[in-house]
Amino acid sequence: MSENPARILVVDDEPSITDVVTYNLRKEGYDVQFAADGASAVQMVNAGPFDLIILDVMLPKMDGYEVLRQIRANYNTPVLFLSARDTELDKVVGLEIGGDDYLAKPFGNRELMARVKALLRRATAQDGATAGDGHKEVIEVSGVTLDESTHVATGPGGDIDLTPREFELLAALMQHAGKVLSRDQLLHDAWGWEYLVETKTVDTHVKRLRDKLEAAHVDPGLIETVRGYGYRFKTV
User: Fold this and answer.
1) Hey, how many other C-beta atoms are within 10 angstroms of the C-beta on 150?
2) Long-range interactions of 83-92: CB distance < 8 A, separation 24+
């Protein structure tokens, strides 16, 4: 671990979970803080920057979804949901409101650490791209413009209101405009996931992305479904 280890906030009201997760993260060399309720978590995030937040859904004082909404109003810190609520709907909701990953309880330590490292790697890569490592910051395809340095997307009707995850998904498609990308590839590019997860979340986000493109007077058909494989952003 480097001289400046990543700072991670663990938010859970179950001491048995908090103790184990905190112990294992510190064993890996991370700087770990913890909060036992949602309101305290928001205060801690506002008081000092964190590189990653591990967030339970069912919390006292303020649930995890509301915690994330308040965090997303000011920060793009990666958030990993850790919850006993493990239905597909729970996972989709968590991802749609801005979560970066969702791990259901009970979980294995190896899987948790793999996801933590993947999210931190992706955040580091994004910071490097913004700093100017040769990554193209402005993408223009078929009347849509993405500025990756400001995370602003625009179309003929003006700015397109996208969540951070929707922006990353659109960026992945536009960076490979004209090429078909599988759902697994989109998960890797837009979420940074490097292991098997439910690919249906891609379909959910694509539907929402098409709706927002149409609202901004952009042809939603630019995101083309390639049956049995994935999606393609068309060039016109």
Assistant:
1) 10
2) 83/56, 83/57, 83/58, 84/57, 84/58, 85/57, 85/58, 88/198, 88/200, 90/57, 91/198, 91/201, 92/200, 92/201, 92/204
Cβ atoms < 10 Å from Cβ of 95: 21
Q: Is 126 exposed, middle or buried (0-12, 13-18, 19+ CB in 10 A)?
A: middle
In angstroms, rounded to a whole number, what is the distance separating the alpha carbons of residues 6 and 196? 25
Task: Output the pLDDT for position 133.
Answer: 44
Q: What structural domains does the chain harbor?
A: 7-125 (3.40.50.2300), 138-233 (1.10.10.10)
For 113, 115, 168, 191, the CA distances from 188, given in Å and listed in that order, are: 17, 12, 11, 6
Two tokens, residue 107: 């979980």
pLDDT value at residue 151: 80
> Between residues 164 and 83, which one has the greater pLDDT?
83
Least reliable range by pLDDT among 110-114, 157-161, 191-195? 191-195
Taking the model in full, what pTM does it have? Answer: 0.66
What pLDDT, on the 0 to 100 scale, is given for residue 35?
A: 95
Alpha carbon of residue 11 to chain centroid: 17
Given a cut of 70, is residue 149 above it in pLDDT? yes
